[in-house]
Amino acid sequence: MTDFFAPCPRGLERLLCDDLTALGAAKVHGVEGGVHFSGDWTLCYRINLQSRIASRILWRIADTQYRNEQDIYQAVFDLQWQRWFEVSQTIRVNTTAIRCPLKSIEYITLLVKDAVCDRFRAQCNERPSVDTLTPDVRIHVFLEDSRLMLYLDTSGDALFKRGVRQHTNIAPIRENLAAGILRLCKWQPGTPLLDPMCGSGTFLIEAAQMSLNIQPGIARSFAFEKLKNFDAPRWLAIRAEAIAAQLPVKPLEIYGSDLYGDAMKASWRNLTEAGLAECVQLKQANILEISAPAANGILVANLPYGERMGELDELAELYPKLGDALKRKFGGWTAYLFTADKAILKLMRLSPSKRTPLFNGAIECRLLEYKIVAGSNRTK
Q: Which terminal residue of the chain has fewer beta carbons within 10 Å of its beta carbon, N or C?
């Protein structure tokens, strides 16, 4: 059994725990910002391919105590790096620290890089080169109090980079956060879904892929393919199995609209390049003017942060109008609004039935659930 760690957007740890357990992971343990688990390399391959919520899959190669910089250097130097990757491959070191007593995180990053290179020079008379943009191997250092954990990244590019959404607009939502929000909405394939502020189409693409059983990592490569222990036949079999399980592309009850033409163009291009344009119905429209495309369903929207719709006073003007529009036109639907603006709670004139805290990067947000009843709930 090998130990791994899967970081994810804060607020989605429970969902990721459930997914990893369902895939057969052992010792599943959620912490803030991710999940520890154990398993074999087949499991690692599957999670990289199938997880919609994890940001990366990190292979833990060391877990020890340290007191000072020299302890860190020695712990890194003592590892058999040449067993895991070639000296000809490029590296990058990322360091994260919580309550670290040492003064400089940047110095620790340089120290770890030097220790890895020194180890290769001692064993091979050569040293790997550093590439901070597109490295072959990413080394992650995590310091917590006096604990040092070292990881090799099996994913490469972050897993929310599906290889399908290339054209973005202002403040796009990351794919794994969008997938987690769809799960929290309890949306299921076959249920009508509307995103009336679809932007570059992230919710739409995730929903279409889920509906057609298209695995999120099917269009990309992974860092584990560059490690010495890579089992190519096993990986090709897993990938072929996933492709065979995909459903044919067809029209789905997934609807997207946006006020802005540039956003609609980006959404259409992304859906087209993902081969999913046939699945989704797009229309340029104001969220206050559209009608429900079905008798009931799920409405989900990543509300603007201020850049797209104007200043905060314009948003304050939007919220009560949005509440009224939902009551008039979306009776029988459940609306999920994702926002960082707490003013919406007073201005919407609707009471959310649920408030789920989530983080979009470092920004604290809420996913607000509104069960829409036709007409006004207020006493006349």
A: C
Give CA–CA dist 25/3, Å, rounded.
10
Residue that has been written with the tokens 């794919």 in this structure:
175
Class of domain 2-153: alpha beta
Q: Name the pLDDT band for 304 (thresholds 50, 70, 90).
A: confident
So what's the pLDDT on residue 169?
62
The 10 Å Cβ neighbour count of residue 36 is 18
CA atoms within 13 A on the CB side of 250: 10
Helix 105-124 and helix 69-77, axial crossing angle in degrees, nearest 10: 30
Closest CA to 203 of 273, 341, 301: 301
Q: What angle do CA 244, 153, 214 make, to 5 degrees?
A: 20
Entry pTM = 0.93
Helices (H), 51-142: 69-77, 105-124
Q: State the pLDDT at residue 375.
A: 57
Boundaries of every domain in the chain: 2-153, 175-212+247-371
How far is the CA of 360 from the CAs of 52, 221, 262, in angstroms? 16, 25, 23
Beta strands 2-7 and 58-65: pairing type? antiparallel
CATH of 175-212+247-371, one of 3.40.50.300, 3.40.50.150, 3.10.20.30, 3.20.20.80: 3.40.50.150
Q: Which two tokens stand for residue 181?
A: 């929000």
